[in-house]
Amino acid sequence: MSFLRRTAVAAAAFALAASGTVLSQTPASALENGLLRTPPMGFNNWNSTQCKADFTETMIRGIADIFVSKGLKDAGYTYVNIDDCWALPDRDAKGDLVPDPARFPHGIKALADYVHGKGLKFGIYTSAGTHTCNKAGFPGALGHEQQDANLFASWGVDYLKYDNCNNQGVDAQQRYKAMRDALAKSGRPIAYSICEWGQNKPWTWAAPVGNLWRSTGDISDKWSSMIAKAQTNRGLAQYAGPGHWNDPDMLEVGNGGMTAAEYRTHFSLWAMMAAPLLIGSDLRKVSDDSFSILKNTDVIALDQDPLGKQATVLSSNGGLVVYSKVLANGDRAVALSNETTATATISTSASATGIGSASSYTLKDLWTKAIRTTSGSISASVPSHATVLYRLSSGASRYEAESASLSAGGTIDSNHAGFSGTGFANGANAIGSYVEWQVSGPASTLTFGYANGTTTARPVDISVDGTVVAAGVPFPSTGAWTTWSTVSRTVALAAGPHTIRLTATTADGPANLDYLDVSP
Ligand code: GCU
User: Fold this and answer.
1) What secondary structure letter does DSSP report for 75?
2) Which residue's CA is the nearest one to ligand 1's atom 2?
3) Architecture of the CATH domain 38-303
4) Ligand 1, closest atom to CA 512?
5) CATH of span 397-519
6) Which of 197, 241, 326, 518 has CB atoms 3.0–4.6 Å from 443's, for a disulfide?
7) Which first-to-last residue range defines the signal peptide (predicted)?
8) To test ligand 1's pocket by mutation, which of 414, 458, 478, 481 has the most ligand atoms within 8 angstroms of CB?
9) 180-204, pLDDT tens digit by residue?
10) CA triplet 48, 51, 54: central angle to 5 degrees?
């Protein structure tokens, strides 16, 4: 078993453990070039320049500089990619592609070297056709796959976007596999982006062919275009995973055609969908607002989560859409997205995300950074075209005392109000009287809800799986049997089942016990 194969198997096993569900479909095995285990992050000039005159090596060097100086590299942006119109219309006498000397007077290798010198990676573009898409008729790689792949490798290219124009009607799988094989033979690891616009359902065949595939036609810098891409791409969650991603096209954040709320929705949904985060604006000109969107590390962490699960849609009602994404540590990301023209309340619940039952959850709003707790309901008033994005974490798992085992003479009572669930454990008034729970780790903290209506503490020994881990722990007076409080102890519980027992060390027996909260 190769290293990559083992990694994939381990990741799949982890995915099962974390989601608690069984995969309904075995995904096609991924392209085993080891690249893009998380979605690519970087830049491509197309959305800002197309083939206009400002697409030059000066611009691309400037972007690489800004990646470093403005903290984008530190935030994870790595690839600095160029798009169509970098070449001359004719190959040279050897049949090689020639960089346009007006745009790239030092050539592509010098530019790649410059980008590498910044600790970044460099990407290039061509088409799986006789020519690229531009009317000037720049040469494509159809029939020249190995020669072009070798040239790119010799220049130090790390990423190829392979377009679909002028494909002569040749079968898409044949064309894209030919370049996959040529890249593999080039001797250089090159991430491979299939830009076939979703025309032949690449999600059904491209996992073993490319590292990502476009699921849609080209994006443009307006709400209607952006949200349409999301609507198509969000139905393809089952096909995405480490090394093989759905690609709803590059980012428009910063290009000026959408509101700040719309750009936050764009960035939120791309992160939820584990989409490539390829910046498409000229970073030399964009506002601080756009930088703050692009550098939101909480949102980036959703996109780059190592589990590599694309969000699924939990509900979609008249343009009010709830997405949930399973994260590697068991958390869930939840997006409440309003595609309508009016403010609306959008709601879901912790249980709908499959996170597992707990007595409380933490919700972090990844745009405002506000943190609050909830017993399970997740709801927000969401302005038109905005998205509220949360990271949902499980607080504690509660084990009620009415589900515990009691030593002889103990009873489950309900005569003192204020308890949780349906009752509390009233252990016998005797030394050695105990209350015992079966719980699941991992955990680090045990919290006991209790009442002690006497004036004297009721000490117990706390044991885990038969070993006392805390002796004579006092449960002080709460002043009344209807006044409930908590006692907590830090106890390291490994993953898996455990028996927690409280054993009275005095003739008074234990306090009345309401529940045990087991916290991660
Ligand atoms: C009272 C009280 C019980 C409690 C007991 C005790 O009887 O009503 O709930 O368990 O005292 O001292 O343990």
Assistant:
1) H
2) 481
3) Alpha-Beta Barrel (3.20)
4) 10
5) 2.60.120.260
6) 518
7) 1-24
8) 481
9) 999 999 999 999 999 999 999 999 9
10) 65
The alpha carbon of residue 384 and the mean position of all alpha carbons in its chain are separated, in whole angstroms, by: 24
Determine whether the shortest distance from the Cβ of 506 to ligand 1 is under 6 A: no
Centre of ligand 1 to C-alpha 469, Å, is 26
Read off the pTM.
0.77
Question: Which residue owns the Cα nearest ligand 1 atom 8?
Answer: 481
As annotated, the residues of the chain forming the CATH 2.60.40.1180 domain(s) are 312-393
Q: Measured between alpha carbons, how far is 242 from 233 in angstroms, rounded to an integer?
A: 17
Q: Among 2.60.40.1180, 1.10.600.10, 3.90.228.20, 3.40.50.1360, what is the CATH number of 312-393?
A: 2.60.40.1180
Q: Which atom of ligand 1 is nearest to 510's Cα?
A: 13
Residues of the chain with CATH 3.20.20.70: 38-303
Residue range 146-166, pLDDT digits in tens: 999 999 999 999 999 999 999
CB atoms within 10 A of CB 498: 19
In contact, 297 and 224? CB cutoff 8 Å: no
Q: Is 148 a catalytic residue?
A: no
C-alpha closest to that of 270 among 327, 312, 230: 230
Which protein residue has the closest C-alpha to ligand 1 atom 10? Answer: 426
Is the predicted pLDDT of residue 222 greater than 50, yes or no?
yes
Measured in angstroms, how far is the CA atom of residue 402 from the centroid of ligand 1?
16
Which residue's structure tokens are 């699921």?
215
Q: How far apart are CA 271 and CA 76, in angstroms?
A: 13
C-alpha to C-alpha distance for 54 and 267, rounded to whole angstroms: 26
CATH 2.60.120.260 in the chain, residue ranges: 397-519
Catalytic residue among 54, 218, 365, 461: 218
Residues 247, 214 contacting (CB under 8 angstroms): yes
Determine the 3-state secondary structure of 212 from DSSP: strand
CB 90 within 8 A of CB 139: yes
